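I am hoping you can look over what I have pasted underneath with an eye to the fold:
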Amino acid sequence: MTSPSYSAARTLLAALVRLGVREVVLAPGSRSAPLAYAAAEAAEAGLLELTVRVDEREAAFTAVGLVRGAALGRGPGAPGGAGHRGVAPVVVVTTSGTAVANLHPAVLEAHHAGLPLLLLTADRPHELRGTGASQTIDQPGIFGGAVRLAVDVPAPDGRQGEERDLVHLAARAVDAASGTRSGFPGPVQLNLAFRDPLVPGADDAAPWPDVRPPRVSAPTARPLEVSPWTAGELTDGGTLVVAGDSDRGEARALAEARGWPLLAECVTPSAGGPMLVPAHAHVLAASPLTADVRRVVVVGRPTLSRPVQRLVAREDVDVVVVAPQGAPWADAPRGAGAVLPEVPLGWFLPDDMLGDGLRTVRRDRWRDAWRAAGAAAAAAIDDVLGLGTAEDGPRGARVADATATTGPVGALTAEGAVRVLADALVPADVLVVGSSNPVRDLDLVHRWVTPPRVVANRGVAGIDGLLATAVGTALALSRPGLSGIEGQTVRALVGDLTFLHGAGGLAAARGEGRPQLQIVVVNDAGGSIFTGLEHGALAEAAPARAAAVERVFGTPHDVDLGALCAAHGVPHVVVEDADALRSALASPGRGTCVVEVRVDRADRRARASAISDALDARLTPSSAR
């Protein structure tokens, strides 16, 4: 007789496959054995892809990467709306106890970023809870409000109707994770109690369950026709478009339709095109144009700069936030005057249908002034950092009107290393970028017309799980027919602390294989982001505090990254100049490899100060200095 636990696990997996699930990430454990055997059986039958990881935290972040990679494979115009709606949930299987708690960082990222994860957390049956049984904690509700649905499922016993209940539960779970009806995808927990026996019988050969879960349809969407702004305001000057995480290109489309300057963070597909203002955070901080802003459209969730947050917090600026239906809207300063589920159709109408010529002339002057300020800021930054000018060539991610030079030469700073990487990318490339300095350096120094496809965990903007996220993204894009590019190399850009924090993401069970992934680690032997914050200012103003700042914020280390890579069987190379980095990027090899760029962080604050001075000189009128 088949174990009720194993039979229930097979039924649940069969229903999930019917509902479109194609990816399962599993960390081993005893209590989750029924799910593990069922997943292995489904994978052997070609019904789904099974990825095994030894660490639950890294397994969950691998699932985050698989979701993000699948979304990239769909393309920005795919059905399902903005964000990750329309992407099938990725299943994560864990055993009971602290294994479940280790999912929490990835669950929080998925919650805030709207990523469909389905957590199948195995548990002891109810009679063993609270008895001191091993590996038993209070798992139901462990993720609090960070999940869209949490169900504590009793241990199966083979009762009549049990299969039907599991099939319909699967439909509810996939609907909640996908955001099909709510418009708000995210993580879901099914806490599944199992009793012994947990393994199939030696002679079990039952056919794969033929189940029919109910179909769940999304509500019918109607184009938004109501506008909070008049036709005159749509064609006049004074408006900016801000694009942040979760924007899927709508911001760029709007900016180009209306002729509005575009302040797009590097993590969005809008970070390119003729309306883009390079180094926009520095332009906002230094240019007198900022004082003349009257309206701002925010698409997505900007997280990278304080000047942007100060702008949308101003009481004299009319802020419209565009947030997909069902999802919370991004308005940390609490300054939004209107929140829309999408950009109104009328905002894409041609100028001659909206306003008079005088307003459009003012609008065009406004646009040109911001573009000129952006170009001046980019030139000043490149001069201070010795970056040259991005090469104008066939690799379409580079700026279109630049004079041809080689970019950074010789020894590299952190910003120079990021510029070399940014210049090497073409629009079809995929870059997974880490939090802290790497994403901000990329925002500072890229000069793209058409950006590559950028992935970043900006939901909570933590440094944990970045390597596993990159691995998951690369795995997703390696699936047949998804990326459209045979043998494509995904690249990741991280700092040394992010690398150390997530080194477990490099661990793979024997036989699992490694995706085509090149990880670039900018190693300054510590946490240099704090030098640009008030902690660095304190260390500079009060030398007696410098040692404490270095110890508790700089966190210097002497870890040998090469030895760490060797322990995981991952090829590693050290580069210290621009040509060596270009050579490494041009020849990534097969599988996963690490390129370590060693840089000095001692003068990081001085470079930032020099950039500020140069921008003041170029953007601020002499009478205002």
Notes: The mean pLDDT is 90. The longest strand covers residues 117-123. The radius of gyration is 26 Å.
